Request: fold
Amino acid sequence: MIENRPWLTFFAHVVLILGVIVIAFPVWMTFVASTHDADTMLRSPVPLLPGGQIIDNYRVVLTEGFAQASRTPLWKVLFNSLVMALGICIGKIAISIIAAYAIVYFRFPFRMTAFWLIFMTLMLPVEVRVVPTYKVVADFNMLNSYSGLIVPLIASATATFLFRQFFLSVPEELTEAARVDGAGPVRFFRDILLPMSRTSIAALFVIQFIYGWNQYLWPLLITTKEEFYTVVMTVSRQANVSDGVPQWNLIMTVGMLAMLPPVLVVIFMQRQFVRGLVDTEK
Reply:
């Protein structure tokens, strides 16, 4: 039962507005900084309204690069981040859904042992296993390559667990009906389970795309060539220059452009994302 009291509604709206301001103000300041020149951003007070350098700033970072540390155009850096994010989320979903399908629908020795071994990797984040992973990648000559950026990060215990829980909720009668109709394992997976898993796949796609897009440590370790730098690396390198003054207006321009792809993914897949989380909870 929801209480309809005016003061409670007013209080809820005040809290909501304050929350929006706290979240939106840094984004607004980033946008404002991306529209001014470098000298304005180094003077006090910091402007709160947009300036007139927006076209020049965005043109420079997209086509020429900008910094003391790198002259790689930002479109190339954004492309690297896009390839890495898509590769990681597609790879994670493909491997996880196949692994969960095998664990739930096939009977083979040590099936649950395999599942719990996968599940235990939740306790081993990238930072813990980064040294042996780097050694393996280096031995396979995958440094400074897209495969080196993507392959070590495409295993996901969380996605495997979520798909397993969803498959366990599929009625046994549906499996029996498919078997009676002559559907083999491949057809059952392709024609029945995949369509039913559409919302779960969409939810995981959003989560894993943002995860791949925001990766910083792993690209920083295995890339030494500028043509494989990602956008998060680029922002960090430009903000931490040691032999000059950071160009904050251009750094904020890169920040605005770096936010666009994840925001667009969330906006366009918002409905499927919410439905996927609700279906998983069921």
Notes: The longest helix spans residues 74-105. The chain has a mean pLDDT of 86. The CA atoms of residues 178 and 184 lie 8 Å apart. The radius of gyration is 24 Å.
